[in-house]
Records
---
Amino acid sequence: MTPKKNYPKLISTKWKELPPSIDAAIRMQNPTADQDGKIFFFKGSNYWKYENDQMEPGYPKLIKDGFPGVPNNLDAAFTQPAIVVKGGKVIREERLFFIKGKKFFLYDPVTGNSSSPQSLQENWVGIKLPITAALSLKNEMFLIGKKTFQKILLLTYTQDRVFGNIHQQKKIDQLLACESTKA
């Protein structure tokens, strides 16, 4: 598969208020919460909040004010979606993970509390560092390095720590399922 025509695009093409580069971004994935589908972008000490490609009023804001305990200058961020069973009962609320260096911070959007920094390598056996980006899709997570990525299958119960199966690192083009566009 090749990339869509006119892609990749600059971030500023779609979200004009953002700086030219960002540190991390997350899309909330909790169908029972008012934040579902909202996108947060992080750069330095600031964050921006978007809904339907429109920046919400009053942004940017300081990370320390909106996400207490989460550090500035993030390397990556991802969400672990809420688990909602038939009938709409939530068994586990959505969780946000912020990565900086060799540590991660777990943030609970319901309580607004953040965990103390925790070691990536002690909690996720086999993780290869450094991590420069992350992507979550349902209960799959991809940790992305400069040229490779690692796929992690997250457990679907309510653990305080995340455990997963670390797969062999693969070339970034395999994650994106596209042909290399090298000249």
---
Amino acid sequence: MDLAVELGNGVSRAFEALTLAFIL
């Protein structure tokens, strides 16, 4: 388990969620 990969996935998902919320 790579902490960097987990952190990257978390940031990516959070950014995607924020983008979707901003668009909607």
